[in-house]
């Protein structure tokens, strides 16, 4: 018994001494995604006292928003001149632009005061989110075994990079979408039909066979 226990005790003391040395334990880095917005703008010039969109403005908006994909995190903002002398007129123009965008099947969001436009201008900004992953690869800590029983500094970099490149909507990395209410009746109808002996027949194969 003594010949067996003594080496084990000595090994335990040796490993304990290595683990409690001056090297600070490394718990692993936190991978954070950085989201930036790629922007393009459209300037709509209103004539004096003009409140509604004219045909040329509608055509410009339609071309500007072609290919808009909100499911991928793209958004539309409408900017206005907050220092406009006629605030009521500016508000009516912004509303006209928003209504025009909505009528085309898009959602618009007022982004607040624009930058540099004149009082007779409304700025429409199209945002496309881009994701970047800082700090990968990260080899500031040696990948070799250093008797600290901790992960190496590049741990989880591959997963973080792959996720950032594969995600369809980068805004999902900021916050997940709210889940819709569950549709329990849809699942229960099949059971109800089974109990009432009204099971739907399986779809029949409609493929035609050539006569031999």
Could you characterize the architecture of this molecule?
The protein has 212 residues and is an alpha+beta fold. It has a domain at 37-130: 60s Ribosomal Protein L30, Chain: A. The chain is built from five helices and four strands, in the order αβαβαββαα. The chain has helices at 2-19, 55-64, 87-103, 157-166, 184-195, and strands spanning 34-45, 75-80, 109-113, 121-132. The chain has a four-stranded mixed beta sheet. The chain is flat. It starts with a helix and ends in a 17-residue tail after the last helix.
Order of helices and strands: HEHEHEEHH
Instruction: Measure the end-to-end span.
Output: 85 Å
Number of helices: 5
Percent helix, as a range, is 25-40%
> Over the alpha carbons, how many angstroms does the gyration radius reach?
31 Å
User: In the CATH classification, which architecture of the domain at 37-130 applies?
Assistant: 2-Layer Sandwich
| Gross geometry | flat
Percent of residues in β-strands: 15-25%
Pick out the low-confidence regions: 1-22
Main CATH class of the domain at 37-130: Alpha Beta
Which topology of the domain at 37-130 does CATH recognise? 60s Ribosomal Protein L30, Chain: A
Major sheet attributes = 4 strands, mixed
Order of strands, main sheet, comes to 1-4-2-3
What is the arithmetic mean of pLDDT? 79
For this structure, what is the CATH homologous superfamily of the domain at 37-130? OmpA-like domain
